[in-house]
Write a structure and sequence with these properties.
The protein is an alpha+beta fold and 159 residues long. The chain is built from five helices and seven strands. Bound molecules: magnesium ion.
Length: 159
Amino acid sequence: MNIRIGNGYDIHRLGTGRPLILGGINIPHELGLLGHSDADVLVHAMMDAMLGALSLGDIGHYFPPTDDRWKGADSLDLLAQVDRLIKDKGWQIGNIDSTIIAERPKLKPYLPQMRDRLSAILKIEGDRIGIKATTNEKLGPTGREEGIAAYAVVLLTRS
Ligand code: MG
């Protein structure tokens, strides 16, 4: 079979004294995401989708939070490593679709920059990377601004 599908999900807590980085873009906000790495939930969900499509486990396996090598890691560097892994196994990304769930700030103005950044890292056209943002209508932990979550689906192809 020459196509595979994968899905990924991630959520990180919001806190003070941290930058808010989503899709590799630093977004002005009074709160940032807490985590061992830069806590880029969107990129983390995408990596888990890529790994899941090939039954390779999850990012916690490759970049464990207990390992100081990944402390403060730029998630785009980790994404490039996961991309290398799937390419080494003969697969490439057909397309990615994703959704960020954040009550605030408004992310729409930053979505094209995120797409361009990810397009450059993954070396695929921007129209193969879907990034959407929605609020959670003030419901649940994302709605209360306790955290930001992201979902991603990826299709991998092999020629
Ligand atoms: Mg994460």
